[in-house]
Amino acid sequence: MDPCDKLLLSQYLDDELDLVTQQRVAEHLQQCCHCAAEFEEIREASRFVSQFEFQDITPSELHRVHQSLLQIDDSFNWRLYGALSAIAASILVVGATWLAALPAPSPSLAGNPSPPAEWEQMAMNLRVDPTISGDQQPAYADARMADWMIEALKGNQ
Questions:
Q1: Comparing C-alpha atoms, which of 122, 123, 121, 141 is closest to residue 131?
Q2: What is the phi-psi region of residue 52: left when phi exceeds 0, alpha when psi lies from -120 to 50, beta otherwise?
């Protein structure tokens, strides 16, 4: 125990240290007058506290504690709740006003929307609608994706 450690002194007094650490603390106490004085103060405080008689709280004392807690001024809490409610109401009003100010959806989007162009379909799900080949079997874009991209880059689509 080279540096002075007050926590070790308390643990030493309570026999909470292993034997090696106990020996180091004991040697340190013989060499360090500051720690020896601190250890004596801790020992004296422990002795004083151990002699003090603690009694359980009586029912009348418990009742007085409960009454005191009930009489605590809650005006701060009510002001806080009021302020938070006002902020929430303001956010609600601003949000509702913003939603009301949004333009109405265009007629093309409201009813039956037109199908997306092939490039839009590709961008949305990386698939092109299947095309029907001559033998009435669907040919999916996954099989033709490279060809479709090359054609699109050439400007043929």
A1: 141
A2: beta
pTM, entire model: 0.36
Residue whose structure tokens are 């090696």: 20
Which helix (H) or strand (E) covers residue 139, if one does?
Answer: strand 138-139
What is the separation of C-alpha 82 from the centre of its chain, rounded to a whole number of angstroms? 26
Helix 118-125 and helix 141-154: axis angle, to 10°?
A: 130
Query: Tokens representing 28?
Result: 């340190």
Q: Is 122 within 8 Å of 102 (Cβ atoms)?
A: no
pLDDT in tens, 39-95: 999 999 999 888 888 888 899 999 998 888 887 766 777 888 889 999 999 999 999
CA torsion 91-96-101-104 (nearest 10°) is: 140
The residue length of the chain stands at 157
Helix, strand, coil share of the chain (percent; to 5)? 65, 5, 30
- Integer CA distances (angstroms), 92 to 82, 89, 105, 109, 129, in order: 15, 5, 23, 28, 43
Q: Give the model confidence (pLDDT) of 88-140 as tens digits.
A: 999 999 999 998 888 876 655 555 667 767 767 666 666 555 555 556 555 55
